[in-house]
């Protein structure tokens, strides 16, 4: 039986592209919200979840850090997708016919130069693939969409201009998540471990908590803070480190971290993707 992987958004979304790239042998299942993705994965209706974590241009994806610790899922892999933006229109449309382009506000902001040069008005849509679906249904050659080539294929639109984004390195990082952790993996490019923690209410707790990683030679590639429950005094941290919890130096660093924290949860240990380097 074919395995399934869930993503948030309409078919043709960049999360859908991530599923096709990373798990071509899985059937991609579209979900309305991130919570829906998590729920059908946790219930066993699908095998894996594809969740965006951060973008190289716009930073972390809202709400994801809050949802991950509560999800009951574990990270089994990371995936990186280059966000190539394309101008999509009805088949047979000429570029000079297009008067407006619809997409998510983030994508519109990433194509300002192209839109300005061609006199195309930006129209805000709910999302990228949804905009492509809407434009296909309208049937107006003066109206186009900004989305992935996959969205064009799905909704029968033609690519008028490829890779029109202002920044050539725009990349989104995704977590592939499952119901069980897989600690047997050992990646060609090393391992990553992601976790969340809260420090104890003692002076210089965060400084002391981080000391164990420095003294044990563990490279921390990410440390972000965010509020817990809307409180200005309760702060939770999300961290990525290089290494596996079974590595002696990582184990010592995590043991030291535990001493200075009131809460610590490892979200997953997974192979480092070659594209992160």
From TrEMBL:
Domain Prephenate dehydratase per the UniProt entry, residue ranges: 4-179
Regions that span the bilayer: none
EC number: 4.2.1.51
Catalysed reaction, written as an equation: prephenate + H(+) = 3-phenylpyruvate + CO2 + H2O
Keyword Membrane recorded: no
GO molecular function, one term: prephenate dehydratase activity
Ranges for domain ACT: 194-271
Any Pfam family the entry gives: PDT
EC top class, as a word: lyase
Pathway entry: Amino-acid biosynthesis; L-phenylalanine biosynthesis; phenylpyruvate from prephenate: step 1/1
Entry's Gene Ontology cellular component terms: cytoplasm
Keywords: Amino-acid biosynthesis, Aromatic amino acid biosynthesis, Lyase, Phenylalanine biosynthesis
An example Gene Ontology biological process: L-phenylalanine biosynthetic process
Protein's UniProt name: prephenate dehydratase
